Amino acid sequence: MLESMTANIIMNTIMKTVGTIALALCLVGFSSLAKETPSADSLKATLSAATAPELPATAAKLVKDAPARDREATTAAVVKNRSDH
């Protein structure tokens, strides 16, 4: 009897821990999806503030930091912004 109660307590603790970890991973995943796509004005401001030697790294960082679903559009916006100059 005591062994089954101990097993139930251990199993409940394990299930709560697994559930907590799963919830935390879901929340982290959703927060990364919620990143805002930088506006054209903020891209322009960031690129304008960079010096010529810093420009390639700054442009690469803007694209890398963009959400995956928006990387292509961000890349196009960065290239368009720089070609306007």
Written overview of the protein:
Helices cover 78% and strands 0% of the residues. The protein is mostly helical. The chain has 2 domains: 1-34; 36-85, no CATH class. The chain is rod-shaped.
Describe what is shown at a glance.
The protein is mainly α. The protein has helices spanning 2-33, 40-49, 55-65, 71-83.
**Element pattern in H and E:** HHHH
- Coarse structural class: mainly alpha
**How many separate domains make up the residues?**
2
Biggest pleated sheet: none
Number of strands: 0
Put simply, the count of helices is 4
Q: Measured on Cα atoms, how large is the radius of gyration?
A: 23 Å
Mean of pLDDT: 80
- What's the quaternary structure here? single chain
Beta strand %: under 5%
Helix content: over 70%
- From the N-terminal CA to the C-terminal CA, the straight-line distance is 79 Å
Low-confidence stretches: none
Throw out a few tags for this protein:
single chain; 85 residues; mainly alpha; 2 domains; 4 helices; 0% strand; rod-shaped
Question: How are the elements arranged and paired?
Answer:
Layout: H1 2-33, H2 40-49, H3 55-65, H4 71-83
